[in-house]
Amino acid sequence: MIDKLADATEKLLSIFASGEFPEAAARTFISRKAGDDKPCLHWSLGNQLLILISGTEDARGFKQWQEVKRNVKPGSKAIYILAPRIRKVMATILDESGQEYKGERSILTGFRAVPVFRFEDTDGEPLPSVDYNPPQFPPLYDVAQHFGMVKYAALEGPALGSCSTNGTITLHSYDVDVFFHELAHQVHNTIKPLKPGQHSNQEIIAEMCACILCEIYGYEGYLWQGWEYIKAYGGQDKQKTLIKLMHLLAEVNAVLTKILVIC
After folding, report:
1. CA-to-CA dists, residue 95 to 88, 91, 103, 106, angstroms
2. 28 phi, psi to nearest 5 deg
3. pTM attached to this predicted model
């Protein structure tokens, strides 16, 4: 596959420069299945991001863990989320016809810190298992498992995939380019520790790797989406994005070479 790397890269740069893309494929999303209902799925986006940053996808209060026959391990540190303080007051309310009447209204008076604990900091009965794995794993799946692990899960927010610093890839789409993108992050991190968050250079490198791997493995329909993603992190200007991309090709090549040598 390495012998195809240069040709695929040159072809993609030509397509990006010309703006003549094949027809784009529709995105797929993994929908939640019955039986997969964690309390944190009903939290605010801010609280959900907080537990993801803390390295888990499931956090609950002490009693909530006991309800599913799991116990918090001694010495575990809590994560503090913010819960709204709601108070009911008497107020004048308008009904649908515009008539006034006295009734109770709930108002937000502030927030309080609530301790929750990561699944990884508990032990006890296993939680119900819901299988989101695809019928067939994508190419290079074994490479990703070599560097960490891959999990498929229902879509919980705007991100179709993520890669933690410990090498765990979480996918909320079966689209192969999403997997290739996160695989590139995973392997890039083994070459040079990645900065937290969505750093522009890191995102451009990962998406260019994904586009090249799609080209090498014959997956069509992802180039337009890939270019739009790259351009978003390149400042939206096509020429400036291409220049920035050219400066990052050495790192792109290093990541892809490591992936393809292992495969």
Report:
1. 18, 12, 10, 16
2. -115, 145
3. 0.75
Instruction: Render pLDDT for 129-145 as a digit per residue (tens, 0 to 9).
Output: 889 999 999 999 999 99
Burial 168-179, CB ≥16 within 10 A → b, else e: bbbbbbbbbbbb
| Three-state secondary-structure class, residue 16 | helix
Q: Is 34 exposed, middle or buried (0-12, 13-18, 19+ CB in 10 A)?
A: exposed
DSSP lists the bridge partners of residue 71 as 123
**Phi and psi dihedrals of 226, rounded to 5?**
-65, -45
Q: Which among 182, 253, 176 is positioned nearest to 8, based on CA atoms?
A: 253
The two structure tokens encoding residue 192: 């040079």
Q: Residue 144, Cβ neighbours under 10 Å: how many? A: 25
Q: Cite the DSSP H helix spans in the chain.
A: 5-18, 45-53, 62-67, 141-147, 176-191, 200-217, 223-233, 238-247, 249-262
71: part of which helix (H) or strand (E)? strand 70-72
Rounded (to 5) percent helix, strand, coil in the chain: 45, 20, 35
Q: Where are the alpha helices (DSSP H) in 54-112?
A: 62-67
> 148 with 165: CB under 8 angstroms?
no
Please state whether 41 falls in left (phi above 0), alpha (psi between -120 and 50) or beta: alpha
pLDDT tens digits, residue range 177-193?
Answer: 999 999 999 999 999 99
Per-residue pLDDT, 67: 93
What distance in Å separates the CA atoms of residue 10 and residue 146, rounded to the nearest whole number?
29
What is the DSSP track for 191-214? HSPPPSS--HHHHHHHHHHHHHHH
